[in-house]
Amino acid sequence: MARPYPPSTRATDTDRSAVLALLDGAFTDGQLDAAEHDLRADLLADARTLGDLAALVEDLQDATPPRPTTSIPTGSTPADPATRARRFLLGTVVAAVAAAIAAFWFVGREDAPAEAAPATATVDDVTALPPLVVATPDLLTAQGFAQFVEDHRAKFGDTVVDDLTIWDTYAMFTRAMPQQPNREIEYSYNYGFAPAYDPTTRSLDTPTLDLADVDQVALARLLADAPSMLNVPAGEIAHISVDPADRSGPASIRVVMTNEFSESGSLVASLAGEVLRTWPYGQ
Fold it and tell me: What are 94-141's pLDDT values in tens digits?
């Protein structure tokens, strides 16, 4: 008598091909749109176990979780699998798909007024999220930061990230994949959200940060005071980063100023706006 392999069993290329066929079918019958299909197809490259593959199709109608082409005879031990490191999508193809996803998500729509933002709920599967195209403000202002936080909440259902760096017109941030805390994705934010790179391994003890904890009134004051504190001649704020608490200190905001001569200064403050340390230009 035979029994099926457990979800932790390493997947074969045949198993991945079967899941890709299910994704293609789901796109054809309208269960997935183009962006959702492409993102899940990208994730196949990093799917190492039958459980990883099942997670990509478990919410689809008539989707049978992937099963191995063989089974384990009762009382026996499966033989060592041969190397199966061939990926479905080479780096250049992944880059092209990422660009296609970005183009799909960035297709313009008229800017909706802020008060018309839809109610949000906790999201279980990032690959099932609908596209969200938003107008990007000047992010290096307290108002721009506030809009980013609300857009993030509308897209993902929460305001939790591993890290965040923002420039004037775009931002980059990393967050864990839903229901897979050992995987992370880095996203870009520029007139919408899009994955910037393939998912990668994430340590289970990676610290996180809730952007809702940033005191936005204090942030506005901090940005207004930064020029006088950092003393960068004709300087402008280059970027802001927000990092979670770790062994080196509490959760913090870093503001960096620079000018056309690459002269720079920076400061670090708490999420409540208390200045913890400054590095003025020339000192």
Answer: 344 444 444 444 344 344 444 444 444 444 454 455 544 445 568 899
Contact 253, 272 (CB under 8 A): no
Q: Is the dihedral of CA 106, 160, 217, 245 positive or negative?
A: negative
- Asked whether the beta carbons of 226 and 267 are under 8 A apart, the reply is yes
Task: List, in sequence order, the alpha helices (H) in 83-176.
Answer: 91-105, 142-156
Map residue 71 onto helix, strand or coil.
coil
CA angle centred on 66, ends 93 and 131, rounded to 5°: 50
CA-nearest of 187, 189, 100 to 136 is 189
The model's pTM is: 0.53
Q: 244: Cβ–Cβ under 8 A, 6 or more apart, which residues?
A: 162, 163, 207, 208, 209, 251
- pLDDT tens per residue, range 233-262: 999 999 999 999 988 889 999 999 999 999
Enumerate the H helices of 140-197 as residue ranges: 142-156
Cβ neighbours of residue 103 under 8 Å, at least 6 residues apart?
A: none
